[in-house]
């Protein structure tokens, strides 16, 4: 496969590029939490069983997981702006389909289309790398990366307010309106990236990866309903293992694979992706535990008796502090490297969950937990794309960031499954209703803290950042992309042959 890139951004980016892409990231991440305020009412609203209603959430997760690496690769080949517009258009269509129906199957189809919007995050990161000068790139990527958490946190109180006072379909009309606004802003403000990867799209690889991901994520998301030792759960896990191994063998034999597994196996990329899974686990833990604790009746002896809207407002600082951390990340990363900021962020997250074990007796204490966790998650999330971009070529950023975003989604899915199992297995039966216990909440926080211990190990195993030396450029720039706060990691392809000039063109 031949990679082409430009030595410097050839298209002048307007000052509105970063705000538009960050706003788009916030909007598409809303799709993940849009129905959280009405999730307990979905069986009644859709006239179905609770186990069937959960597909409305699961379908969005599965389609988003499949779309992110595929759309990222298509963006590398055919233009990241074009694929961003396509993903937003599919999201709008899906939102309108859901807004106009109360039929379960049609709703699931609409929600699956909405999941395609998650590919906007890696596409936006790739556009920033291709278009921005190095002095602006660090803070811009941090803002874009943190938008995933911002949208999820801010959406909770807004969606709760809408759900309490209007028909629940208004949530989808609102999502469609925001999607149309993002489309218009993207068309008007965002230019197309000049960077391309030459080659063809790996259709069989896309089918294989999609099948493997669905087979793997489906039992994770439905394991609590089906039973973790049931034949369906174990059978799907086994099938996923077989499909993904066969897919990996096929990808390694192709000249133009969907995912360059040799690049993915490099320590800088592998450790970053493993750390991303752990960060995804830790982020969702607070979002799963604190709203339940806040809304449990005070009669339980430990519930805080707050309304859905108040609970959402107390969770909002989690995302807002993530966004406010972006400028701090840019300065710390430029001075110390993204590896250091990732380690710092994970340490703050671990401290937040450790402190949270003793801060569950009043609503204001939940606010303290979110204010501690937010900056930690913000630093960690912001570091991940910088580490990926510092280790791959400019023509690979869409696919590489798509895979990294997928790793975060896998972490969130695993977190939902594990914490859901913990809370269910520790619940008390009160008149036939399972009521979560304080013990279950604390064990969930311990799970999140343990994930940070593993994540810190992965972060410490990251290769030492290579100092390019006077007059030299790090790998990210040598391949045609600007870098800010991104220290490249040497050794991914082995040393360059002597006598060959460093250029932005390479044949593989």
Task: List descriptors.
disordered C terminus; 20 helices; 508 residues; mainly alpha; 3-stranded antiparallel beta sheet; disordered N terminus; two-stranded antiparallel sheet; single chain; 3% strand
What does this structure look like?
By secondary structure, this protein is an all-alpha fold. The model is unreliable at 1-10 and 467-508 (pLDDT under 50). Helices cover 70% and strands 3% of the residues. The relative contact order is 0.15.
What secondary-structure arrangement, pairings included, does this model have?
Blueprint: E1 2-4, H1 17-33, H2 42-46, H3 50-53, H4 55-78, H5 80-99, H6 104-115, H7 120-131, H8 134-165, H9 170-189, E2 196-197, H10 203-226, H11 231-253, H12 261-264, H13 267-295, H14 308-324, H15 326-336, H16 338-356, H17 363-389, H18 397-425, E3 428-430, E4 433-435, H19 438-460, H20 475-478, E5 506-507
Antiparallel strand pairs: 1-2, 1-5, 3-4
């Amino acid at each position: 496969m031949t990679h082409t890139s430009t030595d410097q951004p050839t298209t002048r980016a307007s000052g509105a590029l970063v705000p538009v892409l960050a706003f788009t990231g916030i909007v598409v991440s809303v799709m993940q939490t849009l129905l959280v305020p009405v999730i307990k009412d979905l069986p009644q609203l859709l006239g179905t069983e609770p186990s069937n209603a959960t597909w409305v959430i699961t379908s969005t997760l599965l389609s988003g997981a499949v779309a992110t690496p595929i759309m990222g690769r298509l963006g590398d080949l055919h233009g990241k702006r074009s694929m961003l517009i396509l993903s937003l258009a599919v999201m709008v269509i899906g939102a309108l389909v859901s807004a106009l129906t109360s039929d379960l199957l049609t709703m699931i189809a609409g929600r699956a289309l909405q999941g395609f919007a998650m590919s906007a995050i890696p596409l936006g990161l790739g556009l920033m790398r291709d278009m921005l000068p190095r002095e602006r790139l660090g803070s811009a990527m941090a803002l874009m990366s943190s938008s995933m958490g911002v949208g999820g946190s801010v959406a909770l109180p807004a969606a709760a307010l809408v759900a309490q006072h209007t028909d629940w379909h208004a949530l989808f009309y609102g999502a469609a309106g925001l999607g149309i606004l993002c489309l218009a802003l993207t068309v008007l403000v965002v230019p197309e990236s000049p960077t391309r990867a030459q080659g063809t799209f790996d259709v069989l690889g896309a089918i294989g990866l999609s099948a493997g991901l669905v087979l793997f994520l489906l039992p994770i998301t439905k394991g609590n309903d089906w039973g973790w030792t049931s034949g369906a759960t174990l059978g799907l896990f086994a099938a996923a293992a077989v499909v993904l191994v066969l897919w990996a063998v096929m990808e390694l034999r192709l000249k133009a694979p969907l995912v360059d597994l040799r690049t993915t196996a490099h320590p800088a990329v592998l450790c970053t992706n493993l750390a991303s899974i752990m960060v995804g686990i830790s982020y969702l833990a607070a979002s799963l535990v604190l709203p339940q604790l806040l809304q449990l009746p005070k009669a339980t002896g430990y519930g805080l008796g707050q309304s859905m809207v108040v609970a959402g407002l107390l969770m909002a600082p989690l995302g807002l502090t993530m966004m406010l951390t972006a400028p701090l990340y840019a300065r710390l990363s430029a001075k110390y490297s993204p590896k250091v900021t990732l380690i710092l962020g994970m340490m703050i997250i671990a401290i937040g969950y450790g402190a949270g074990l003793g801060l569950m007796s009043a609503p204001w204490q939940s606010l303290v937990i979110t204010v501690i966790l937010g900056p930690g998650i913000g630093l960690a999330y912001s570091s991940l794309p910088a580490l990926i971009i510092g280790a791959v070529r400019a023509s690979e950023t869409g696919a590489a960031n798509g895979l990294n975003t997928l790793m975060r989604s896998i972490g969130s899915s695993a977190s939902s499954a594990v914490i859901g199992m913990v809370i269910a297995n520790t619940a008390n039966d009160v008149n036939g209703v399972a009521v979560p216990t304080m013990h279950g909440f604390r064990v969930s926080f311990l799970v999140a803290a343990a994930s940070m211990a593993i994540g810190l190990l992965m972060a410490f195993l990251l290769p030492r950042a290579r100092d390019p030396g006077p007059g030299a450029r790090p790998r990210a720039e040598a391949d045609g992309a600007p870098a800010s706060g991104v220290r490249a990691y040497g050794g991914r392809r082995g040393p360059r042959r002597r006598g060959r000039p460093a250029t932005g063109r390479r044949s593989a």
